[in-house]
Amino acid sequence: MRLQRSKKAQTLIMMLLVASICMTVMGFVMYRVATGTLTEEAQNAYKVSLLRTQDRVESYFKQMDQAVLQFEKLPALETFSKLNGLNQKLDLVTLRDTIVRMYSSIDDVDNVALYSVGDKKLIGTSQQVTAAQDEYAEVIAKFESLHTEKAFFTIPVNQSPTSVYVRKLPIFQEEKTAYILFHINQRFFDHILGTYDNVKGNYFILDQDGVLMQNRGKLSKEQLLAGLSPSRQDESFASSHLFITQLKASNNGWVFGFAIMNDEFFTKINRIRNLAFLLAGCLLAVAAIGAFLTTNRLWRGWSDIVKLVNDTSSTTERKDVQRHPGEQLDEFGAIYEKMHQIKESRDELNVQVNAWRPEVRDLFIRNMLRKGLRSQEDRNRLEQYHIQLYQGAYSCFCIEIDQYKSMMDLYTDVDLYYFRYGISKVIKEVMDEHGTGVVTEHGEGRFLALFSLEESVIGEAQQQFLHYAEIMRDFIKQYFPFTVSIGISLVRKDYAYLGIASEEAEATLKHKLVAGANEVIPFEAYRGEPETGSLDAEPLPVLFRELENDIIYAIQAWDLELAYSYADRLNMLQGIRTLNYHWLHNKLTEMILSIYWTINKTKRHASTELFMNKLSQLATLEDWIACLKFDVIALLIESLKLTHNEHMQRVAQQTIAYIEAHNEEDPRLEDLCKIANVPASIVRQALKEVHEATYSDLVLISRIDKAQNWLKHTEMNIEEIASRLQYSNAQNFSRIFKKVVGIPPGQYRKEMKNEQSD
Known about the structure:
The protein is an alpha+beta fold. It contains 27 helices and 15 strands. Among the domains are: 73-190, Beta-Lactamase (2-Layer Sandwich), CATH 3.30.450; 196-263, Profilin-like (3-Layer(aba) Sandwich); 372-526, Alpha-Beta Plaits (2-Layer Sandwich).
């Protein structure tokens, strides 16, 4: 499978995955919304039905209460109450007949009984009730324990569940002499709850104690009790299996409710939910299968590329896959071949870099010894080249082979190379044994070394460096067929003055004519001046060589304030009466001319006469400082800026001209740099400073300008213009043109023609 096809397949797979996730989320949301709506609607519907049932029950008990009130008006009941039913057989017959009539007038009542509190006799409409009055002792006892006017019980009588409604008589008198009992049969609950064989749920009644009293439906009592929560009233709720709706307790304490299995209640919505989840699962499965099939080829292709990238062997050691000449490469094969070429180029470049690294390192060391270390970037490069320097005292050594030119006639170039190599190793070994440092060749038969020690007393450091130099000299004299002379600079701590120290070490070897060959020559012994550059206590607070070095650094950095602050150090010479004026005049003149010549070497001869006349007229230290600031520092910084700006303008003009000449091609920055012999970083800096734009911005502007000219003065269509200006298509060109100009190219051409016609 091609890479492009795999990408399209992966895009389709991602769409399937997104679709499946969306369908899953949508199905879940719809399920929650639908179940919530259905629950609310069902709750309202079932509550209406339960309220009707509750009203029927309350009406039924009101009917019995009305019958009891009519029963109380009988004289026989009044006499029965006064005599507690004793020797009142005639009245008892009358009472029984009345009870029978009341029994006949109330539906779903098996019998009615009158219980005398005095003699504890039971008079009922049925002889079975009278004969089994002992069975009702529990009912009477439970009723009396409640201390209430009326109550309803469901208790076993004659080993069968019996529902009994008990009420005290007389109703409106404090002294109660009798109880009336209504035996309600199960048909009453069938009438109010129904058999509901065709209903999936259950209607139920809880008594005043929260106990399940009646239950009608297909659910068993155990299933209903498993999810029933009597404490939660007047609300719909669902247990793990049941959906339940129930009302608040009625006047007699009963709770009416309806329960149905969740699976049956949400059957249709569950089917829709399951269908959505099934479809999402099918999409997910299709996406997974497609991902497996399409990524198999991708993994194999990428594995080859990853192996190639992670392969650390060289090009000569690597065994590449051989392809047949006529074999057609797919996208992965093309990428692999391209990566292979890049890796080969990288390996070749690494070989070249490894070969150049010692030379680059030596170049950095020579540059460091010439300019010193001031910036953090220089210190970072120390770590890059694995150069370790101590922060204690340091000194520069200049080691020169005596009579090196005569040796060139006696030895071959190979011999001389090994001699130089051996000397550098001797110098490095001594430095590593007693401190640390670097060494580099500095001309024919000459070496320049930086030797640093850990924190120590400066006076001792000077003697230590002298001792170590003597070790180097004696070793070379003993094991090499020649001798060396070694110049030692003053001891310093600040690495910003490495350039001064290296100059001192080189200058010291000039005294070789007096000291002789095979000698160690310290700069300290031949100063011949009142000032010193060492770290010993000095008579002067200003060190002219260090001050000159600092001012040159600030001027080259265009830092006017820093350069002025360095110049102000000369004020420290005020009040030193032991200074010789002529000596100080010469030092200041030498420093100013050295600064000027170092920065502006092209005007050296012209500036000598100019400054010598002016400097000879300076009388006070303030005049010298002012001259240094305004006639040297300020002018040199301004000159450097002007030269820089002219260079930037010239580079920017060359870049604009190149872009204008090649805007119908591919004007690459690398090609411009090769033609102009200017680094790419300088070109980018010039464009940023002069035009405040990037190279790509100028290419875009040049092409749009040419497109505007063509639209205005030619009849070229937009497709041809886009093609000539290297745009992939007319739509891309139109989009960019509108972004730059503000209107599409077609509208621009129309407006330009209208202006020309006007």
